[in-house]
Amino acid sequence: MTATEEIKRSQIPTHLLTIYNQKVVSADDAVKIVKSGDNILCHSNCAFPTVLMEALVKRKDELRDVVIIHALSVGNLSYLQPGMETSFRHNAFFIGSNARRAVGEGRADFTPIFLYETPLLFSKGYINLDVALINVSPPDEHGFCSLGVEVGLTKTGAEKAKVVIAQVNPKMPRSLGDSFIHVNKFKYIVEVDEPIPELLQGDRDSSPEIIEINKKIAWNIANMIEDGSTLQMGIGAIPDFVLRYLEDRKGLGIHSEMFSDGAVELVEKGIITNEMKTLHPGKIITGFVLGTKRVYDFIDNNPLCEFHRQEYVNDPFIIAKNYKMVAINSAIEVDLTGQVCSDSIGSKLFSGFGGQVDFIRGAARSEGGKPIIALPSTTKDFKISRITAQLKPGAGVVTSRGDVHYVVTEYGVAQLFGKTVRQRVKSLINIAHPKFRDELEKYAKENNYI
Asked: Is the Cβ–Cβ distance between 375 and 386 less than 8 Å?
């Protein structure tokens, strides 16, 4: 079904249909409004506006210093190819695998920032947006389009941009909540009909040993989750396995910057009901989804799910209002005092802050809350301990030692809150891989930690 057919089916009033049709142009014509030096916000994650971006890239020879702004995105980013940097420069709020090389080679930029503060860059004028390129559902009978699979960062940005160009795509699910933008806001509309990109889950590329380690970590975490808990968990193998181990729990809820396919299964089984939540009872609260068509179909026009701006979803003070808030976040390495690096490998920028600190702090202030940092005890080749004597030179501390409460590996749980350095060191050595414990203990003794 094309966007036009979808609009006719929705029985949009004649005056709104006239407004809509007056704005419909080709992608090539729509992006002609972009000028050299403009700041361009692109819809993030699986909502990346590929058709509009491909049209913009065609203008590479006539444009200079156009800044492309977004968080993680899924798919090929052609404007990040070597040689494009004089025309386009990416400002990443989170570095995905498709942007890592460009950032590492200095052809793209990274802004370290807490996720809940990211939209404030637009609303408070730190970044003035000239154009927003977004990917939306067809308008309903009132003229409102949904931002679909990603609302959290884009809603505020689209409101603040001088010009909004919308890809209208009947494949985009109609997410509910604070997710709508009216056709009157659009300068141009480009009709497309293409599947929303999917992000597959889990350990499909991992060895049996790695899968088993992730299962053990997930089991340790699952044993910490009580009936009635509200969950935040990101994408990846460990969160996916955690959800599989919760099938005997009752009354779980979700308040998370994002969720994926695994949560859908627990909703269908009556385990995630959201009925015991103290904030937004009966509702899943989120900013975006990452996953497959299964989760896209689940959120489509589903009143169980409320999408909100990231400055709301990820506000630590909002998060803390949830009873038994359990935040599960990953790390690249943790030193013996509890400092957490999760955005770089040494000085090499790797990802970003995401919502880790937002939810670690929010869960810490929640009644009965549990802020959890989870990681395997070693690298995938088993040659390097990820419980380290010191963080690598240049490594970024995303979560400070004062914020960390629980660290979980396949060898157990270290509870660090309120503990002395000596107690922390002993607890973390106990959950390190056994072959590294002696050298970690030697370092701790040499530095008078124990």
From this structure: yes
Q: What number is the average pLDDT over the span 429-444? A: 98
Q: How many other C-beta atoms can be found within 10 angstroms of the C-beta atom of residue 290?
A: 22
Residue pLDDT, tens place only, 328-352: 999 999 999 999 999 999 999 999 9
pLDDT tens digits, one per residue of 102-141: 999 999 999 999 999 999 999 999 999 999 999 999 999 9
Contact predicate 195/173, CB 8 Å? no
- In this model, does residue 10 exceed pLDDT 70? no
Choose the catalytic residue: 6, 257, 333, 441.
257
On the 0-12 / 13-18 / 19+ scale of CB atoms within 10 A, 54 is: middle
Q: Annotated catalytic, 159? A: no
Give me the domains of the chain, ranges plus CATH numbers. 3-191 (3.40.1080.10), 208-446 (3.40.1080.20)
Q: Which whole-number Å values give the CA distances from 413 to 50, 94, 220, 223, in the listed order?
A: 43, 28, 7, 10
Residue 239: predicted pLDDT: 87
Distance CA 375, CA 387 (A): 9
Q: Are 53 and 73 in contact (CB under 8 A)?
A: no
Q: Which long-range contacts (CB under 8 A, 24 or more apart) does 180-184 make?
A: 180/144, 180/145, 180/146, 180/147, 181/134, 181/136, 181/144, 181/145, 181/147, 181/155, 182/139, 182/143, 182/144, 182/145, 183/16, 183/19, 183/20, 183/23, 183/139, 183/143, 183/144, 183/145, 184/19, 184/143
> Could you read off the pLDDT of 317-327 as tens digits, one per residue?
999 999 999 99
List beta partners, residue 144.
182
Which helix (H) or strand (E) segment holds residue 4: the answer is helix 3-9
Reported as a single tens digit per residue, the pLDDT across 371-403 is 999 999 999 999 999 999 999 999 999 999 999
Contact 311, 279 (CB under 8 A): no
Token duo for residue 54: 């491909």
Neighbours of 424 (CB within 10 A): 25
CB 328 within 8 A of CB 237: no
203 pLDDT above the threshold of 70: no
Q: Are 412 and 377 in contact (CB under 8 A)?
A: no
DSSP annotation of 180 reads E
